[in-house]
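> run fold NB-ARC domain, LRR domain containing protein
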Amino acid sequence: MEETFLTPVIDKLAELVFEEANLFKGVHKEVKSLKDELEIIQPLLKDAETKSERGEMSEATKAWMRQLREEADRIENVVDEYLYHVQQDHRRSSGFVGCFCKTGHFIKALRPRYKIACEIRDIKESLREIKERGRSYGLTSLEQGSSGALADVEGPDPRLGSLFIEENQLVGIDSLSKDIVKKLVGGTSSRSVISLLGEGGIGKTTLAKKVYGDEVVKGHSDCHAWITVSQTYNTLRLLKVMKNQFCPTTPAGEVSTVEELLNLLRQYLQTKRYLVIFDDVWQIEFWEVIKHALPNNNKGSRVVITTRNSSVAYSIRETPSDLVQELKTMSSELAWELFCKRAFCFEFEGRCPQELEPLSRKIVSECEGLPLVIAAVAGLLSTKEKVESEWRRVYDNLNYEFETNPRLSSISKILSLSYHDLPHHLKACFLYFGIFPEDYLVHEARLIKLWIAEGFVESKGEKTLEQVAKEYLNELICRNLVSFELWYGGLRMNRVHDLIRDIILTRADELRFCQSLNGSKSRYREKSRRLSIYGTTKDILNVIGDSKVRSVFLSNIDELNQSFVAGLFEKCRLLKVLDFENTPLENLPKQIGNLFHLKYLNLRGTKVKTLPKSIGNLHHLQTLDVVCTLVRELPFEINKLQNFRHLLAHRTDKEIEAGLDSIGVIIHGEIGSLKELQTLRSVEAYHGLAKELEKLKKLKALGIMKLTADIAKALGAAIEKMILLEELFLGSDDKDEILDLRSCISSPPPFIRFLSLFGRLQSLPDWITKLQNVQGLQFRRLRLTDDPLKYLKWLPNLSYIDFNQAYDGEELHFEEGGFQKLKQLRLRRLEGLKVVKIDRGALPLLEEFEFGPSPLMKEMPSDVQHLKNLKSLEITNMPSEFVLALQPDGGQDYWKIEHVPSVIFWHKSRGNDFNKYKLGEPDLLDILQACK
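> ok
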């Protein structure tokens, strides 16, 4: 990271020298001289970093590095303040040239130039002293060699799936997980608690996640919840999370206290067989409160906790049925097996070459049987050349850590080696995970946009910054530092293990990289560059003072007043990233336009209704996210943003499921002027839009709503020219108008991965068969009468289909040999459907099947019995006779589905809410009998 903090400063100075033509001659010379001075110091810094990795750094050298960091921050502040003031002068006049025509403006324009010149001279003098002192400490200019990075990861990397599969982090986990599953679904009818006890990195959370995701376990419980507790839990907020997971449709009313939530949860769970997992419990007091929400209702309910604290685990044992499962370190044989799987996963068929085995076994023994440590070290070694000298260097560092540190602290040191081994451009990206809360899943696309806004991503040839950033993320995953979960459509949600997060937070604090604040109780580190504000904003402005912070994230905020927001904009005027996601923000002040350096603005999930015209002043803005807000129209000034890359303004699936139309925002003017735009999702169609879209040569994701027949043809012609397009969303809100997309588009963009169609169609267009790269299809309210499957069955990469009111016909036929990669199938609200036929050999990989309501379908298709990979079957609001026939006790069609691990029924109550029932549940049978 030491090398990392200088690189962007040097780049910023180089940009200023090259582009800022208005620098006076003397200032221009000073800036160039300063840049040259930093480039001389950079190799010394690299040498210091190398000594740090070897444990050879003296306290004096550490102080030298801290001072250099402070000077680098000071340079960045000077440059950004200068550019901010110059921009303010531009706006106050009729233009930069105009300001020199007025004496007052001329004097104001001189001030920032005079200030930057004075400050640079002072900084240069400090840097000269730092340089000489570094040489006196024995630091030398080393050749810049390989930092051990992987080769560029091109496209989908085959290692991603095999190198980090969480349940396989523990070799031999299967027998233990099966034992836990038996205890969860069998045994006593009393509520029982299973405590998974073990040290950090032993695999407690991995084991808990495996049993929590088991289809048998899910099918056995009426409702389930996963709650991450951590050291700094808040009881009220934790109970609210429990309520939202257990009973999201139950109105909370005025429930606002711990006692009220405990009563609400206890009443709701009284008649349920529930499963709840509390991950990372540290304090005994936690259970003394939370147990009052969990009734012992003799329905076989289960509670699982994970903890490092044996006092917690054993204090929870209140009955003989409560168990403590202590996780042990791995045996030498299992540890060796895990190491080989990770270190040689791409070569030697997962086996260790003979010449490396003695050294490899020594490395494994140093890891002391902790799976996370073994996996991390093996992940590091998988990137190294398989020669003894390279592996000896790693082993020597490991050995040093173990010799000089107690066992527990050395674990973090060992994991830190993976951090030190990262190339400089990945270190900041890795540390960025410290901004998010513990166990937070961050969307891949959001992470990539943030990294770009922060300036972490370096341009590389013809690739876009987004493509390079994705390579960065792939490499972090390959190195076992970041894990991911796959969501529908292949979307990746990323997180870091809590032990690795501890390392991130320690390093981030040392470097003043980021800091979390919670009201007046927080102690602000003056030079922190990024702030994560949570809980409350009370007194935060007083705490941070006149800050040079560059990024602000707000989360779990209960109240957000306008004075705080306006004050934040005033005090933090050098912001590049501003993230208000899911906060109660109602109004965006016009002062937002003063944030000249802002590149990323996230308002997703807020209550903002309008955007001020001053947003047109944000000339560096790259990303604007107004998804799930009340914003329905964008100001004309948005077209001034020449660096704008991503506009996100669509409905979420959850909103659409709630009955809301899929709408877009209204835009005005020449949107085609936004030459850098890659994402435009979604906007309302209008005459003239096609002409503007043809100017957007870099579009990769496009959403158009309120599409009408009279403008569809022109838009189709524009879409055909979008050769880079990967995601396409087209929608019509007119329930009577039938669109004909066949005549609009004849040759679709070749790289479409996801296609969503919304609104009535005459039939599916023939061109859909040409989408050879499509992975996901989403059809809503199409009301087709012609069987759509004949157009889709031979699409080679199709893995996800969602039909929602998409077909009014009576029969769907999945023909033999079709849909060879389909894993998820949703047939929802197909009210005319009577028969579903599935030939042998069709849908061989199908794992999830969801359908209903289809009131005319009288029985479960017998062909379901052939779907051997089916793991989950969900049936929504089907006729009573249909559901009764599937029940295990006497149901005539039970044999068709008895091989499916998880079968769930959703039944609509008297209100609009759906209740969830498992196969054979008595409550379900009572309701169905009553409905007959």
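Confidence is low (pLDDT under 50) at residues 94-107, 143-169.
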